[in-house]
């Protein structure tokens, strides 16, 4: 069983690297966005599109076990969207991501955002071939999540702490959470936001804008 699992991961990593190289040649930035259900992925997505839609040609891939609720919500922004059903799987791997990109069509895009399946476990284990990994942790989830799901924090380039407008209601210590995340991943960028009110969206958009520019410049 262990050998099979190691083989699956190794095959996926090779496919992910091939996909990353292909996207780099096309100057397309792929962001893998991960979070628990209800953390605010779709709301943050719409805010991101509002902030960057006039500067970049954006496409979105919505991954879900079932339903197209999120895809229909994002489609209202006017960007190109495709729904990816995982058939019960709790994550996307590199090959599934590649198929999604082919279905979406990327020739006219600068930035593609993959909204991964909602959980903090499986998506962290599989490299999708993304240029960068972003994760959302919402205030109601608690500041102990870096202790419970360290792999997710270790593979993410940026941690978006969402629902900061509700921090006074919940027992959430921002500094403690940040310290825990930094202990796991010293290089992780931490951005507090409220997708509901717009707080912190400019900082998030600046990070993404700079990341896309750096990627396109090689």
Secondary structure topology:
Layout: H1 2-25, E1 29-35, H2 41-52, E2 58-64, H3 69-75, E3 80-85, H4 94-104, E4 111-115, H5 122-125, E5 132-138, H6 145-148, H7 150-155, E6 158-162, H8 174-184, E7 189-192, H9 201-216
Parallel strand pairs: 1-4, 1-5, 2-3, 2-4, 5-6, 6-7
Helix pairs in contact: 2-9
Explain the overall architecture.
There is one protein chain. With 218 residues, the chain is an alpha/beta fold. Helices cover 44% and strands 19% of the residues. It has a seven-stranded parallel sheet with strand order 3-2-4-1-5-6-7, sandwiched between helices. Helix 2 packs across helix 9. The radius of gyration is 17 Å and the shape is globular. The termini are far apart. The model has no long low-confidence stretch (mean pLDDT 92).
**Fraction of residues in β-strands:** 15-25%
Unreliable sequence segments: none
Helix content: 40-55%
Task: Figure out the total of helices.
Answer: 9
Euclidean distance between termini CA atoms: 39 Å
Mean pLDDT: 92
Number of strands: 7
- State Rg: 17 Å
Outline, from the CA principal axes?
globular
Q: Largest sheet, described in full?
A: 7 strands, parallel
Strands ordered across the widest β-sheet = 3-2-4-1-5-6-7
Which terms would index this structure?
single chain; 218 residues; alpha/beta; seven-stranded parallel β-sheet
What can be said about this structure in brief?
With 218 residues, the chain is of the alpha/beta class. It contains nine helices and seven strands; from the N terminus they run αβαβαβαβαβααβαβα. The longest helix has 24 residues, at 2-25.
């Amino acid at each position: 069983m262990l050998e099979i699992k190691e083989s699956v991961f190794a095959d996926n990593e090779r496919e992910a690297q091939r996909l990353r190289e292909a996207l780099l040649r096309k100057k397309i930035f792929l962001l893998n966005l991960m979070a628990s259900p209800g953390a605010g992925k779709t709301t943050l997505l719409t805010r991101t599109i509002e902030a960057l839609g006039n500067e970049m040609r954006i496409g979105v891939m919505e991954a879900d076990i079932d339903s197209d609720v999120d895809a229909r919500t994002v489609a209202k922004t006017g960007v190109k969207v495709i729904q990816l059903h995982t058939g019960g799987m709790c994550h996307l791997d590199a090959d599934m991501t590649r198929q999604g990109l082919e279905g979406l069509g990327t020739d006219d895009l600068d930035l593609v955002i993959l909204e991964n399946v909602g959980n903090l476990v499986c998506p962290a284990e599989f490299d999708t071939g993304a240029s960068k990994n972003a994760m959302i942790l919402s205030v109601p989830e608690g500041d102990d999540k870096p202790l419970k799901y360290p792999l997710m924090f270790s593979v993410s380039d940026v941690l978006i702490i969402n629902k900061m407008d509700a921090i006074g209601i919940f027992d959430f210590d921002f500094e403690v959470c940040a310290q825990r995340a930094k202990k796991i991943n010293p290089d992780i960028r931490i951005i507090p936001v409220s997708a509901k009110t717009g707080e912190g969206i400019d900082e998030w958009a600046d990070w993404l804008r700079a990341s896309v520019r750096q990627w396109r410049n090689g």
